[in-house]
C-alpha cells in the first residue's frame, strides 16, 4: 500500500521557528502514514509533478515573497485536490505581495494589538465548531501568547474565534476567526491562528486542533 505524501514548506521570518515548529508535527504525520518531503522555499510550488502527487502541503513560511508562477502552482494543486494547512504567521502572514494567495487562504494577519506594550496577552479561544471532527470534544481554552486580529472573508467555515477587547482606536470588542477551514475546488484548506512559538503549539488543545486539521485537509 502506497503511503500518502506530505510536503512541508518552511522558512521566512525566523521568529516563528519554522524548522522547530514543523519538526513538532513530523512524527505525527509519519504515524498517520505520510511520507514527508521538506522544502525551504516556495519555489517548490512550481514543481507541478511533485504537487500532483502530494496529498498535503504543510506551510510554515512567514512573510517572504512568492512569484506568480509559484502562487499559481500552489493554487492549482489545491484546486486539484492537494490539501493545504498551517498555523499562525506561517500561513496567514505569508506572501503579502500576492492577492491570489490571500484568496486561497481566506485570511490575512492584520495586527496583534498590544496591551501595555506586550504582544503576549491573555485571551480565550472559543470553539464554535463543536460538531466538526477538528474541534469536536475540545472546550474553550485560554492562552497567553500573540492574539491575531485577522482580516477574513465569509467563504470560510469558522471553527473557533477569539475576541479582542476594546482599546485604543476601537470602541467595542472585535471577534475574529481563530480556526477556520475552506474548500477550494477538490482541495481543502485548514488555518489555525494560534502557534507563535513552540510553547503555544505544545498546548494540548492547540496541538490536537493542528494535528486534526492536517489530516482533515489531506487528500
Protein model, in words:
The protein is of the alpha/beta class. The protein has one domain: Class I glutamine amidotransferase (GATase) domain (Rossmann fold, 3-Layer(aba) Sandwich). It has 8 helices and 11 strands. Strands 2-1-3-4-11-10-9-6-7 form a 9-stranded mixed sheet. Strands 5-8 form a two-stranded antiparallel sheet. The longest helix is centred in the C-terminal third of the chain and has 14 residues, at 204-217.
Keywords:
219 residues, alpha/beta, Rossmann fold, two-stranded antiparallel ribbon, 8 helices, globular
Describe the structure concisely for a colleague.
With 219 residues, the protein is an alpha/beta fold. It has helices at residues 18-23, 26-31, 48-52, 68-79, 89-92, 99-105, 198-202, 204-217, and strands at 4-12, 34-39, 56-62, 83-87, 107-111, 120-127, 141-146, 149-152, 157-164, 174-184, 187-192. 27% of the residues lie in helices and 34% in strands.
Dominant shape: globular
User: Radius of gyration, Cα only, in angstroms?
Assistant: 16 Å
The percentage helix is 25-40%
Question: What is the domain tally?
Answer: 1
Strand arrangement in the largest pleated sheet: 2-1-3-4-11-10-9-6-7
Subunit arrangement of the protein? single chain
| CATH topology group | Rossmann fold
Count the E strands.
Answer: 11
Amino acid at each position: 500500500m502506497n503511503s500518502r505524501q506530505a510536503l512541508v514548506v518552511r522558512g521566512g521570518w525566523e521568529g516563528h521557528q519554522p524548522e522547530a515548529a514543523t519538526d513538532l508535527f513530523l512524527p505525527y504525520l509519519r504515524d498517520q502514514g505520510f511520507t514527508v518531503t521538506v522544502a525551504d522555499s516556495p519555489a517548490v510550488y512550481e514543481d507541478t509533478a511533485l504537487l500532483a502527487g502530494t496529498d498535503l502541503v504543510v506551510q510554515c513560511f512567514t512573510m517572504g515573497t512568492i512569484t506568480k508562477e509559484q502562487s499559481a502552482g500552489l493554487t492549482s494543486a489545491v484546486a486539484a485536490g492537494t490539501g493545504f494547512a498551517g498555523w499562525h504567521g506561517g500561513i496567514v502572514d505569508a506572501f503579502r505581495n500576492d492577492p491570489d494567495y490571500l484568496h486561497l487562504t481566506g485570511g490575512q494577519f492584520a495586527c496583534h494589538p498590544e496591551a501595555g506594550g506586550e504582544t503576549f496577552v491573555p485571551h480565550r479561544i472559543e470553539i464554535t465548531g463543536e460538531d466538526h471532527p477538528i474541534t469536536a470534544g475540545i472546550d474553550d481554552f485560554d492562552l497567553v501568547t500573540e492574539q491575531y486580529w485577522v482580516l477574513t472573508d465569509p467563504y470560510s467555515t469558522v471553527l473557533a474565534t477569539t475576541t479582542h477587547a476594546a482599546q485604543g482606536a476601537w470602541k467595542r470588542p472585535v471577534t475574529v476567526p481563530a480556526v477556520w477551514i475552506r474548500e477550494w475546488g477538490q482541495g481543502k484548506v485548514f488555518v489555525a491562528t494560534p502557534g507563535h512559538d513552540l510553547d503555544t503549539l505544545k498546548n494540548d488543545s492547540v496541538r490536537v486542533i493542528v494535528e486534526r486539521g492536517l489530516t482533515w485537509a489531506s487528500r
